[in-house]
Amino acid sequence: MCLGLPMTILETDSITALCEYGDEQRRVSVMLLSDALVGAKVLVHIDTAVRLLDENEARLISEALDGLEASLNGQDCDRFFADLIGHEPQLPEHLR
């Protein structure tokens, strides 16, 4: 399984970008994106930025990853998935 990370672009030369997620920094390809600017949030799969994210979507993905980590460590993870409690999750428009 491959998980996408919501990373922030710190610097870019339009071909690659130095991105950050938490304490991790890595250089990733941004060749799939035409508007990968410094400060942008991007979804990174296997060291390739595949699409831009808005702040809210990046936060939700980050919280889900934090919840997964909490669950794997035997901790309560409900607070990380508060947006899912009380209603049926919906697929994003591009996956429908």
Describe the structure.
This protein has a single domain (5-88), classed as SH3 type barrels, CATH 2.30.30. The protein is an alpha+beta fold. The mean pLDDT is 90. It is 19% helix and 32% strand. Strands 3-2-1-4-5 form a five-stranded antiparallel sheet, covered by helices on one side. The chain is globular. β2 and β3 form a beta hairpin. The protein contains one helix and five strands; from the N terminus they run βββββα. GO terms for molecular function: carbon dioxide binding; iron ion binding. It comes from Bradyrhizobium zhanjiangense. Belongs to the HupF/HypC family. This is HypC/HybG/HupF family hydrogenase formation chaperone.
Topology:
Layout: E1 5-12, E2 16-21, E3 24-29, E4 41-45, E5 48-53, H1 55-72
Antiparallel strand pairs: 1-2, 1-4, 2-3, 4-5
- Alpha-carbon distance between the termini? 21 Å
Shape: globular
The tally of strands reads: 5
- Rounded to an integer, what's the Rg over CA atoms? 15 Å
Provide the spatial order of strands within the biggest beta sheet: 3-2-1-4-5
Q: What sequence of helices (H) and strands (E) makes up the elements?
A: EEEEEH
Mean pLDDT: 90
Mind telling me which CATH architecture this is? Roll
Please give the largest β-sheet. Answer: 5 strands, antiparallel
